[in-house]
Write a structure and sequence with these properties.
Structural class: mainly alpha
Number of domains: 1
Helix content: 55-70%
CATH superfamily: dinb family like domain
Shape: elongated
Strand content: under 5%
Distance between the termini: 41 Å
Oligomer: single chain
CATH topology: Four Helix Bundle (Hemerythrin (Met), subunit A)
Number of helices: 7
Length: 162
């Protein structure tokens, strides 16, 4: 079995992970307004609005790489790239709505992927192939999930999941 075939076999699992991650993010965002979503964990640190925008921008990158339509254009996503610290941004409710809009596009793009696409070179040479890039994207998404609970608690809200 080639690497691309192995990754293709894992894509349904990865799609499920992204779907579960989104459900957690939506629960963490529930009841938050712009003020709460802009509460930083540390002075000058990022916020829940930035985190959700960051994940949306990264998921959009996966959509682009799979030849699917992203939700945000690159200019809208730029303030949410790694290493940026954005204060404010689109209304928090709009970021959450964009994540909801994006979810079926990402699921469809994962479902449509094939071994030819997955074997294409990654734009990040260290990852090798697009398939490895997508798997990294799922890991990246999961890496950030626990932070959402910290932002929510820092804003004075209880965690909806224990």
């Amino acid at each position: 079995m080639s690497d691309a075939e192995a990754i293709l076999a894992r894509l349904p699992h990865h799609r499920g992970v992204l779907e579960r991650n989104l459900q957690v993010l939506l629960r963490m965002a529930d009841g938050m307004d712009d003020v709460a979503a802009d509460h930083a964990l540390v002075p000058g640190g990022s916020t829940l609005r930035w985190l959700l925008g960051h994940l949306l921008a990264y998921r959009d990158r996966m959509l682009r790489r799979l030849g699917a339509e992203p939700v945000w254009d690159e200019a809208t996503a730029a303030p949410f790239e790694r290493g940026t610290q954005v204060a404010g941004g689109p209304p928090f409710a709009d970021v959450v709505a964009a994540l909801r809009t994006q979810a079926p596009r990402l699921a469809a793009a994962f479902d449509a992927a094939d071994t030819v696409a997955l074997a294409q070179p990654s734009k990040r040479a260290s990852l090798g192939t697009l398939g490895a890039e997508l798997e990294f994207g799922v890991w990246h998404d999961t890496y950030h999930i626990g932070q959402a609970a910290l932002y929510r608690r820092a804003a004075g809200l209880d965690s909806p999941i224990g």
